Amino acid sequence: MNYRLFLFVALAATLASSCAKTQPSESRAFIEWVSKNAIAVESYDSPLPGEELASLRKAIGPARVVGMGESRHDTREQLLLKGLLVRHLIEDLGFRALILEESFPHAEALDRYVASGEGDLREIMNRLAGWYLWDTEEMLDLVRWIRQFNEGCEPGRKVRVFGMDITAPAPGVQSVLDFLHGSGTGTQLNAKALGLDLQRGDFWPDTWKRYAALSDERRRELSDNYDVLVETLKLEKAKLVDSSSGKEFERMLLLAEIGRSGNALFSSANREEGGAVRERGMVETILWILDREIAGEKAIIWSHNLHVSKSTFRMPGLAEGTLQPMGVQLSEELGDAYVAIGGTFGKGSYSADLPPGEREFAEVSEDVMDGALGKVGEPVFLIDLRGAEADSAANEWLQEEREWRAQDSRAVQVPGAAFDLVYFVRNVSRSHPTPLALRRFQSQGEQH
Q1: Domain-by-domain residue ranges, the chain?
Q2: Chain centroid to CA 160: how far?
Q3: Closest to 178 in 3D by CA, of 166, 195, 194, 190
Q4: Fewer CB within a 10 Å sphere, N or C end of the chain?
Q5: What average pLDDT does the chain have?
Q6: Which of 438, 428, 431, 432 is nearest to 349 (CA)?
Q7: CA–CA dist 74, 432 (Å, integer)
Q8: What residue spans of 162-316 are helical by DSSP H?
């Protein structure tokens, strides 16, 4: 399997870039400021000490939604640090939902597990559409912790787990068809009419390839059919609510809308168009969750930096112009109620026997974000970028474009506009795929 290729497509943003032209000496003021103001993290396993926890509380403030990014999906240390922060947000700040960069219908099994213990967690994680991201021992430990936390909670205070992605909508669309047929609502639509046969395997880069082979006429037919599916639900609302419930009807309408967005993604003409469809689709799903499933509660979004960022980013050599991530749209919708946390690292290596294969991450120049943070004395820390004084040299440095690690390449963003906080881990290693995940990786390799 071309592992690098599918991670690029899944992110819609693994990037090459031109280097920001800055003399290293200009970075010193920023490095010194971070060194004085960093929130140090001594251990991934132990709670933050009182002073550091107070700093985290102050940094998060009254935010209702925290977008928590990562520069690579597959680094053990970033997963562990994010897991520690998630536990604090849940235990100490009252957050009650974790929204993953995962298919909405697939994640429903995960939500049932954390609520009641239903199902085998290892099988659930391996059946997720994004199993290649989530099926690791580090993520299993976090989900188990949420399940244990929920055992001591009243029903209305339990932590929920959701997916926000539109990249594997087929199970949800099939549920809508079953819902319509079960209520006696007439429709000529079926799985093939909605292209569900093209989505087999839930690996959406493969779905995109199958769509690429379709004629323009077939693409238009699929688009028209999804419009019909959504309109049928809306026209038959009274009947469908009577035969089920208002809540179930709203869920089915969401699944149909996700299916329509997914079809638009797969049918997109290029990476830029598809990325825009995906980002908007995830925003709409998140807002639906906030409004319909966890009204009044606070949520954590777990995703890549380039999704949760509050500013646009560039893809020199790979895309024209700038791309707008969902974090920009969430910030516009939620204002100060949305806080974005970015993450990166200094150096490390992967062995050749695990996907994506051998990797060596060397330290980089201090004129880019990863390199500058690597010059700070603390090996693991967070920094609230909003604390830099407006006229200071540190803030000036933050307001210029900087390179960031992004999977196997680099993004170009303005740090002070992109994120409210940033975390950094100096040394990284490969996260631990579960045995089931490793077998699936091997199977993918045989198929590609």
Answers
A1: 3-167+279-447, 170-278
A2: 16
A3: 190
A4: C
A5: 92
A6: 428
A7: 8
A8: 170-182, 204-212, 216-235, 237-243, 246-267, 271-288, 305-308
CA pair distance 261, 278, nearest whole angstrom: 7
Axis-axis angle for helices 246-267, 204-212 (nearest 10): 60
Strand, helix or coil for residue 433: strand
Q: In terms of C-beta density within 10 A (0-12 exposed, 13-18 middle, 19 or more buried), how is residue 224 classed? A: exposed
Show the tokens assigned to 348: 């490390």
**Quick check: 430 and 350 in contact, CB under 8 A?**
yes
CA angle, residues 129, 312, 74, in degrees to nearest 5: 35
Q: Can you give the pLDDT at residue 212?
A: 95
Q: Tokens at residue 413, please? A: 């963003």
**What fold characterizes domain 3-167+279-447?**
EreA/ChaN-like  fold (3.40.1660)
Residue type, 251: R
Closest CA to 229 of 267, 264, 188, 198: 188
What is the value of pTM for the model shown? 0.93
Q: What is the pLDDT of residue 447?
A: 55
